[in-house]
Amino acid sequence: xxxxxxxxxxxxxxxxxxxxxxxxxxxxxxxxxxxxxxxxxxxxxxxxxxxxxxxxxxxxxxxxxxxxxxxxxxxxxxxxxxxxxxxxxxxxxxxxxxxxxxxxxxxxxxxxxxxxxxxxxxxxxxxxxxxxxxxxxxxxxxxxxxxxxxxxxxxxxxxxxxxxxxxxxxxxxxxxxxxxxxxxxxxxxxxxxxxxxxxxxxxxxxxxxxxxxxxxxxxxxxxxxxxxxxxxxxxxxxxxxxxxxxxxxxxxxxxxxxxxxxxxxxxxxxxxxxxxxxxxxxxxxxxxxxxxxxxxxxxxxxxxxxxxxxxxxxxxxxxxxxxxxxxxxxxxxxxxxxxxxxxxxxxxxxxxxxxxxxxxxxxxxxxxxxxxxxxxxxxxxxxxxxxxxxxxxxxxxxxxxxxxxxxxx
Length: 409
Description:
The strands form 2 sheets. A 7-stranded mixed sheet has the order 3-2-1-4-7-5-8, sandwiched between helices. Helix 2 (66-76) links the parallel strand 2 and strand 3 (80-85). By secondary structure, it is α/β, with parallel strands linked by helices. The chain is built from 12 helices and 9 strands.
């Protein structure tokens, strides 16, 4: 059977405008690594990168021969540019380079090229297509292949676990030196980021998610370079201080930034039948209810064996801690992610709810023993579980009021 194709089918009137990309290399006393980095990177980009690009070397306070080498490389390669700051700090270098960049998409990578360059286009493609506002490489998700020391592995996984459970983030690796952003979106965030050193990455990502931006992750190949300038333990301490500062800022409402946010999803098909807002709210409510019922049962299953060798107050605390972690993470994944937007407040509310749960369930078990000194174990467990269940129901009613009130307005 012969298929006829119209000559004009698929033909554009003119070429589509391609997004331009600026790859920033922040450097501090990197006279050994810089030449090989730039030559390798420019060769890769020339041969296989499909978007218009340039490379920016951003020196931040080098005292060796880094700056003369950067100037020489900029003179040698037409698409390589060099800038200089008098003070040290990777965050400061990226702020300066990204603010001044003429490109549509700004990125950065470490001078040691620890991250495989094959992940560069998949990372920026999500931004060029308009699908995401921020994109990052991750060494901790499925599909990533890494080689690094046990010390860095433990510290990295512990730190990112703290971000997931403490801030409810959706990304898995805040510290990978391989990130990109749409310039129109990242510039307002840069004005709010306070850190000029290694915490810059984490602060930028937390602010992005707090303000409803989408962060896209790309699994990367990563090999540790032992000549790194990163002081892992010192950086970890500085990161914890930064998290405390940013947590205070978010809790006081000072982390809201006016940024171009993604539009709400809409159907592509012109005749699509879309669920009503109340149906979506009901799905959220059902998810919250299922998680609440499961954690109530889990609480009872934990409290009973713990009570065999712990006091009521201690057994209650241990059971509540374990169930609070499960409840918060489950709701973050399956309930509150449905709405998108600012998810950071979830963990602050979870902390307040934990304190209320502990106070009221402890009062219930102690009050029971005061009223019925001979109360058996079954009655005791029933009292605390009933109190926990009532508190869960209270959360259901609060969610109903908040979600359905929004859908009806």
